[in-house]
Structure formats: structure tokens, C-alpha cells
Specification:
heterotrimer, A mainly alpha (126), B mainly beta (116), C mainly alpha (409), A: mainly alpha, elongated, B: 116 residues, mainly beta, 6 strands, 31% strand
């Protein structure tokens, strides 16, 4: 269960990193990137809720659940930053090179790394 | 009674022996009666199949034997089936059809070249 | 010259018309999770759809009977009705998925939430079915669908390690991150996406709509034999893009927005625009085809007059049933059900229902009373029998695999 959530979260964060990168390199416009980020926010929420719905059996599992959930929460926060930066870009006509944007990219990269580490530890759960 | 009620019914002989199920009904077109323009379809009889009440899928025609092996399989499915004439049916009940004593079973196959 | 143009147009629309939301989603999902290791299934599916379309097109052209007229005649009313029920249900699911796909594509263009686009998408589908001539409808959607070629271009621009891709494709193996049951589940899904039954309902009914005769058989065969495999190549390109860009990033496709990211990565905004136009055209075209197919199947089974060549007033029940289908699709989507999930289920159920339409067509294509001298040749029968076995295996395996794998989760 935790492995599935990590997998889902890692995929969502990976997509967001890619989408922001495309925006920064002017390879994709805001509608497509914004849609991606919105979809991925849904994915992260799904992953977290799915995990919250399952009851861990052992203490070790409980610890793992807590660890994964906090990683997912951090990922959601990073994605939130990215969506804010995108909204700011949309309304003020900013370039992708603002402090807010860079902060979002850094946070997402950190999340991606964290989830990747968890994924390597847990496998894909398949 | 409509045809759907009859299809799939059990068919027994007059002494209650199970013969099969009604798989199909066969109609003939007569010459139109005097003063009328259209010929009515007349029920000639029922096709009774001992192993399956499913459709013949067109393989009641003797000339059609393709594609291998499905044609052979479907024919085998309906092996032993026969045509009983309307005159040989004693009771056409809601669940079962009873045949008269000494009914004659005809070959259900349709002959012809099979081309339109 | 005119004939040559006709052939070219037919092939081009067949290519553009091959891809629909099922192919888009399934190929991208498979590419992102299995790389090229499931691509062989696209090949198997394309040969199958060519065979099936060839037989049903021939039956329609020679006997003038479309698929469900044949099924009703051969299976009788009761088994025929069960068959209609299953086929119709799956078709309705596909209509829903396609309409949802149009709305998702519009969201990617405008960033307005897809739920707001759904009523407009369904209305536009209805309007085109009501007003636009069959031939124009087909050609415009098919030609615009060709924009999807950009996926192929993108794959080249990405400069992948061709040797590695070819290696995955030619010696397929289950990736370490997946298990065998999931692999085979997606194999069935990919097969169902390539051989969606509606394509055949539509193809055979279209033959009647366009008044094909025996002499048009050669052209229809060329359209099928050239157009579908090239359309299959588009599917492969979609999977390839996902395999090259998304798989290494650990991304598993769950939304339409992910499918276009590799194209943007490779070709920038212009390529993205082409991809979006192509996806819009492909889903819109398929929404038209599936909606018409639901009308065709019902009308053909119940013996109503049907066809776009008649004015709507002369085929009232046919048109009314399509309106009802669109409204049902609208209702399902309005609940917020994820169109991508609906798509994934629809391709699997397509595989489940395939034998129901395939076997009657195979039988009638062999019936000299209908077909005269145009019955299946021996070679086609051998191939058709092999495919019947494949289709049966996919059909029987689909539901157990779906349960075991939790629908590929």
C-alpha cells in the first residue's frame, strides 16, 4: 500500500518537474503546464488519501505510513508553490525566472529526490 | 402464443420421453389465396435438436460447410436434430411440446446450391 | 487521377481515423510503464483489425448488410439481443470516453476545466451528426487527425537510443518494476484498443452509407491495408515518446496532460499545438464514429431505418437513439468520473466483447448465399481462425487479469 502511494506520488512529482522545466524552457505554454500541475495535484491527493484509508498492521508499517504521508504532504506543498508561481506568471505576465518559480522548482526537485529514495527502498509494490 | 415462447421449449414424445429442445421453426410461403395479394407464411414444423437449443447460425443448409472447423463444430452441435411437421404436434404447451405417437422425423437440412 | 486522389484520401483518413482516445491513452500508459516491450501487441492488433475490417467491409459491400443486421439474422433474436446488449454497452462506454477526451484536450488548450467543456463537446458532436454530410465528416476528422504524426516527428527529435528501443520491442520482457499479470493485462488492453469493435460497426455501416458495391472492394482493401498499419505506427510513436521521456523520469501516465509532455519536450510549442489539434480531431472523429455506431447497432438490430444518407426525419429513431446516448455519456461524465479511467476500462471490455461480433462476421463472410464468389479465400480463413483463437484468449483472459491486477494498478 505504501509502495503504491510512493509510486503514484513519485510519478506525479516527476511529471510536475518535467512540466515546469518545459515552461522554463518556453517549450510549453501555461494552459498545458497548468493542466498538468492541476492533474498531478489530484494524483498526489489521491495517493495520500488512499494511504490514509488503509490501516497499518504493525508498528513498523505505521512508521512507514507516517514517513510516506509526510513525504506526500511535502510534495503537495511543493506543487502548491509551483501552481502559485504559474498563476502569478499568468496574471502579471512574469517570465519563468522569478524567485517564486525557482523556489517551486527547488522544492519539487527535493520532493522528487525524496520520493525516488522511498521508491528505491520499497519497490513499486507490484 | 408467440414464437419466442416456443423456441427453447422441451420436446417430448407422447410417452414422455425427452427428445430435445425446439431450436428453430420452419415456415413455407404458399401461393396467395384467391382474392388476396400476399402469401402468408405457414408454419411447416419445428426443428428439434437433442443437444442444443442454440441457433444453427445458417448451417441448416447442407451446402454450407465453411469455415473449417466452425461449420463442422456447429453441425456437430446440432447432430441428431430433426424436423417434425405441424400435424405431428399433439400439445404445444407453454413449457413443453409433445409429439404425437408415431410422428415422423424428417431431415432438417435444406438443400439447394446455396447461391442467391 | 480522380481515382488516385480518392485512394490517397481514403488512406490518409484511415490513418488519421485509426487513433482514438483508447489508442492514445493505452499506448502512452504502456510506453511509460513497459517501454517498447508491449509494442508487439499493436502489430498483432493491427493485423487483426485489417482482417476484421476486410471481412465486414466485404460482407457489407456484397450483401448490403451491416454488422448487426447479420448478427440478428444469424444468432436469432435472443442470443442476438444479448450480443447487442454487450456490444452496445461497451460502445456507449467508448462514446463517453471519447467525449471526455475532447473535453480534456480542450482543457489543455484553454486551461478551462474539462467538466465545463463536456456539454459543448457533446453538443458539437450531435450537431455534426445531425447536419454534416457523412463524407465531409469523415474526411475532415481523418485529415486533421493526421496532425498526430507529430508524435512520430517528436520521437526522432528526441534522438533516443534506437538500439535500446528496438531491443525492447524485439525481445520483449516484463520490466523489473512490473509483474507478469499486469504485463498481460495491458497486452489485452492494447489489443482491445487496436481492435475496438466500433471501428468495425462503423466501417461496415459506412460501407452501406457510402453505397459501396463489389467494384469498390479494391479501394476499400487498399484503405484498410495501408491506412490501418500506418495508423498503428502512430500508436507506436505515441508509446515510444512516453517510453523515451516519461519512463526514465518514473512517470506513469494517468492523464492526457502527461501524454503531450514528450512532444513539447521534443518540439516546443508548435509541436505541442499540432499534437493538441491532432488529439482534438482524433477524439472528436472517434466520438462521431462511436455515437453513430450506437445508432447503427440499435437501428440495424431492431430494423429501424438508419443512415446519414437519409434525412433525420426519415430515420427518426436512429437519430433519437444517438441523442439519448450522448445524453447518457454527458450524465456519466457529469458525475466527475475520470475519462481516462473510463477509457482504460473501455478498451479492456472491448477485448471481452470482440468474439461476439467477430464470429458472426467470419461465418457470414464464408456464406456463399450472401457472398457469391466473394467468400473468404482459404488463406484469409486460416488467418481468421488464428485470430479467432487470439481474440477468444484475450476475451477470456481479460476479466480474470483485471481482477488479479486490480485493473493494472
Amino acid at each position: 500500500m505504501a509502495a503504491t502511494a510512493v509510486n503514484q506520488g513519485s510519478s506525479a512529482v516527476g511529471t510536475s518537474v518535467l512540466a515546469l522545466d518545459l515552461l522554463a524552457r518556453e517549450r510549453a505554454g501555461t494552459p498545458a503546464v497548468g493542466t498538468s500541475l492541476e492533474d498531478m495535484a489530484g494524483e498526489l491527493e489521491d495517493a495520500r488519501k488512499g494511504l490514509l484509508d488503509s490501516v497499518p498492521a504493525t508498528a513498523a508499517e505505521r512508521g512507514l505510513h507516517r514517513e510516506v504521508i509526510s513525504a506526500l504532504v511535502r510534495a503537495e506543498a511543493a506543487l502548491g508553490l509551483a501552481r502559485q508561481a504559474l498563476a502569478a506568471k499568468d496574471s502579471r505576465g512574469d517570465t519563468a525566472d522569478t524567485p517564486g518559480f525557482r523556489a517551486a522548482q527547488t522544492a519539487l526537485a527535493a520532493s522528487a529526490k525524496e520520493l525516488k529514495g522511498l521508491r528505491q527502498r520499497l519497490g513499486t509494490g507490484r | 402464443m408467440i414464437l419466442t415462447d416456443v423456441l427453447g421449449s422441451r420436446v417430448t414424445s407422447s410417452d414422455g420421453r425427452y427428445l430435445g429442445r425446439v431450436a428453430d421453426a420452419r415456415f413455407v410461403l404458399d401461393q396467395p389465396p384467391p382474392g388476396q395479394l400476399l402469401a402468408g407464411a405457414r408454419l411447416l414444423g419445428l426443428i428439434v435438436s437433442p443437444h442444443s437449443a442454440g441457433s444453427f447460425m445458417g448451417y441448416e443448409r447442407n451446402s454450407v460447410n465453411r469455415p473449417w472447423p466452425w461449420a463442422q463444430l456447429l453441425k456437430w452441435w446440432h447432430r441428431g436434430s430433426f424436423l417434425v411437421l405441424w400435424e405431428d404436434i399433439e400439445v404445444m404447451g407453454p413449457e413443453t411440446v409433445t409429439l404425437r405417437e408415431g410422428f415422423s422425423a424428417y431431415d432438417p437440412g435444406l438443400d439447394g446450391t446455396g447461391t442467391a | 487521377m480522380k481515382r488516385l486522389l480518392g485512394v490517397a484520401l481514403g488512406i490518409l483518413t484511415a490513418i488519421g481515423g485509426f487513433v482514438d482516445i483508447g489508442d492514445l491513452v493505452t499506448n502512452a500508459v504502456v510506453g511509460s510503464r513497459f517501454g517498447m516491450s508491449l509494442i508487439w501487441v499493436v502489430g498483432v492488433g493491427v493485423v487483426g483489425i485489417c482482417l476484421f475490417a476486410d471481412m465486414s467491409g466485404r460482407v457489407a459491400a456484397v450483401s448490403g448488410r451491416a454488422t448487426f443486421e447479420v448478427i440478428r439474422e444469424r444468432l436469432g433474436p435472443r442470443a442476438g439481443l444479448a450480443n447487442l446488449g454487450a456490444s452496445f454497452f461497451i460502445n456507449l462506454m467508448t462514446v463517453t470516453a471519447e467525449v471526455g477526451g475532447i473535453a480534456l484536450a480542450l482543457q489543455l488548450v484553454t486551461s478551462i476545466h474539462y467538466l465545463l467543456w463536456i456539454p459543448l463537446a457533446a453538443f458539437a458532436v450531435w450537431l455534426v451528426i445531425w447536419r454534416v454530410r457523412f463524407k465531409i465528416m469523415e474526411n475532415v476528422a481523418g485529415l486533421l487527425g493526421l496532425c498526430l504524426v507529430v508524435f512520430g516527428v517528436a520521437l526522432f527529435l528526441l534522438q533516443p537510443d534506437w538500439g535500446q528501443l528496438a531491443g525492447q520491442a524485439l525481445s520483449p520482457a516484463v520490466p523489473q518494476t512490473e509483474n507478469a499479470a499486469v504485463y498481460w493485462f495491458y497486452a489485452v488492453g492494447l489489443f482491445g484498443a487496436a481492435m475496438t469493435p466500433y471501428e468495425v460497426f462503423f466501417f461496415s455501416s459506412g460501407a452501406v452509407e457510402e453505397g459501396w458495391k463489389r467494384k469498390d472492394l479494391i479501394q476499400s482493401r487498399i484503405n484498410v491495408l495501408a491506412g490501418f498499419p500506418l495508423g498503428g505506427l502512430l500508436s507506436v510513436a505515441i508509446a515510444g515518446c512516453a517510453a523515451v521521456v516519461l519512463m526514465p523520469a518514473g512517470v506513469e501516465v494517468t492523464s492526457l496532460s502527461q501524454i503531450v509532455l514528450p512532444v513539447a519536450d521534443a518540439g516546443g510549442k508548435l509541436a505541442l499545438a499540432f499534437a493538441l489539434v491532432g488529439i482534438l480531431a482524433a477524439t472528436f472523429g472517434a466520438a462521431l464514429e462511436t455515437t453513430l455506431s450506437s445508432g447503427y447497432t440499435l437501428a440495424q438490430f431492431f430494423g429501424w431505418s438508419w443512415g446519414k444518407f437519409r434525412s433525420p426525419g426519415r430515420a427518426a429513431r436512429f437519430h433519437l437513439s444517438m441523442i439519448v446516448c450522448l445524453l447518457v455519456a454527458l450524465g456519466v461524465l457529469a458525475t466527475g468520473a475520470d475519462p481516462i479511467l473510463i477509457t482504460e476500462y473501455s478498451v479492456v471490455f472491448s477485448a471481452v466483447a470482440l468474439p461476439l461480433t467477430y464470429l458472426p462476421i467470419l461465418i457470414v463472410a464464408n456464406d456463399p448465399q450472401y457472398m457469391g464468389s466473394d467468400v473468404n479465400s482459404r488463406g484469409i480463413n486460416v488467418a481468421a481462425n488464428v485470430y479467432l483463437l487470439i481474440i477468444l484468449a484475450a476475451s477470456l483472459g481479460a476479466i480474470p487479469l483485471m481482477i488479479v491486477t486490480g485493473a493494472g494498478a
